[in-house]
């Protein structure tokens, strides 16, 4: 197959009608230029030039091939420019999937910071339940997912980022530090997230660890619905700590819950691992946005305890 240098030599020789001037313009010796032309003619199986001592004239086949050669060189130049732009983050596109808890907190902050530095790169965001995020990553529908490893999948790579604790969300009440966060909830309805969500999976584990065998009175798909129901004093809920930052919980009591198995949030990607320059830059920005583990935990009134 012919190469870019061969095409450049042919096009400039045809345009200048001179081997000598073409060789000088593309910084080659005349013998080197002639070799490239002969090699190209050999690969095409036709003579491109009718040569004599005075002039260089295109043959019929050469004239026909000239337009193709110009288009091939233009396409090569465009491909190189596009590749360079991707490398230098002047263009690009990738898709990120995340659980509702991180899609409403961590991911918007990360995307905003990334777009500020790389405004020409397009970021597509999809939010869904844990099993949906896993499916999207496994099928290659998204470039990465941010979620929890509900099951082991040999085709997926999981890189842990942080532990997302659960908070017990209840109508306003007073709970002494010496008392269990579950104190006084025996007669209060339980508002659960729908099955299939990682929030529900870890809430079930937390309930089991606390020795509570309570069937949900309501099951809702959105955390905003659960919070609204708690605010209306219809029951209590267990929600990821990472999600509550986006809601106004001043009139709601929230308490940390001890968990035997912490809810781990991390990066899900399909194997073998490959990331575009834009996605690599996004992953670096994502890690900068991870909340510090030194942040104070909320007390029984919903405010942060002093360090």
Automatic annotation (TrEMBL):
Assigned keywords, A-Z: DNA-binding, Transcription, Transcription regulation
Mind telling me which PROSITE patterns this protein's record contains?
HTH_LYSR
Q: What SUPFAM superfamilies is this protein classified in?
A: Periplasmic binding protein-like II, Winged helix' DNA-binding domain
Residue ranges of region Disordered? 285-307
Organism domain of life: Bacteria
Instruction: Give this protein's Gene Ontology molecular function annotations.
Output: DNA binding; DNA-binding transcription factor activity
List, for all copies, the residue spans of the domain called HTH lysR-type: 5-59
Q: Which Gene3D superfamilies match?
A: 3.40.190.290, Winged helix-like DNA-binding domain superfamily/Winged helix DNA-binding domain (1.10.10.10)
Any one Pfam family match given in the protein's UniProt record, by short name: LysR_substrate
Listed GO CC annotations: cytosol
Which CDD domains does this UniProt record tie to the protein?
A: PBP2_LTTR_like_4 (cd08440)
Per its UniProt record, what InterPro entries does this chain match? HTH-type_LysR_regulators, LysR_HTH_N, LysR_subst-bd, WH-like_DNA-bd_sf, WH_DNA-bd_sf
Record's keyword annotation contains Thylakoid: no
Q: Which PANTHER family match?
A: HTH-TYPE TRANSCRIPTIONAL REGULATOR YBHD, NITROGEN ASSIMILATION TRANSCRIPTIONAL ACTIVATOR-RELATED
Q: Which family, according to the similarity comment? A: Belongs to the LysR transcriptional regulatory family.
The name this protein carries in UniProt is: LysR family transcriptional regulator
Per the UniProt entry, what species is this protein from, by scientific name?
A: Salinicola corii
């Amino acid at each position: 197959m012919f190469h870019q240098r061969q095409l450049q030599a042919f096009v400039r020789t045809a345009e200048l009608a001179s081997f000598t001037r073409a060789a000088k313009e593309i910084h080659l010796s005349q013998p080197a230029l002639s070799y490239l032309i002969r090699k190209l003619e050999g690969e095409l199986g036709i003579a491109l030039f009718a040569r004599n001592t005075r002039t260089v004239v295109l043959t019929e086949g050469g004239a026909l091939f000239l337009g193709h050669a110009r288009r091939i060189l233009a396409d090569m130049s465009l491909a190189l420019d596009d590749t360079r732009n991707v490398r230098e983050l002047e263009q690009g596109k990738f898709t990120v999937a995340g659980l509702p808890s991180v899609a409403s907190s961590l991911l918007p902050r990360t995307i905003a910071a990334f777009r500020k530095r790389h405004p020409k790169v397009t970021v597509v965001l999809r939010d869904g339940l844990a099993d949906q995020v896993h499916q999207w990553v496994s099928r290659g529908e998204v470039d990465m997912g941010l979620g929890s490893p509900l099951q082991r999948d040999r085709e997926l790579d999981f890189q842990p980022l942080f532990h997302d604790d659960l908070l017990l969300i209840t109508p306003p009440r007073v709970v002494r530090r010496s008392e269990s966060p579950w104190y006084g909830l025996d007669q209060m309805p339980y508002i659960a997230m729908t099955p299939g969500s990682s929030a529900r999976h870890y809430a079930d584990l937390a309930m089991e660890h606390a020795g509570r065998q309570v069937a949900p009175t309501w099951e809702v798909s959105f955390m905003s619905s659960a919070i609204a129901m708690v605010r209306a004093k219809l029951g209590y809920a267990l929600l990821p700590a990472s999600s509550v930052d986006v809601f106004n919980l001043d009139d709601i009591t929230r308490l940390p819950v001890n968990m035997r198995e912490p809810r781990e949030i991390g990066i899900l990607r399909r194997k073998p691992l490959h990331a575009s320059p834009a996605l690599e830059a996004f992953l670096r920005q994502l890690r900068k946005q991870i909340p510090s583990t030194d942040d104070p935990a909320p007390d029984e009134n919903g405010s942060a305890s002093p360090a």
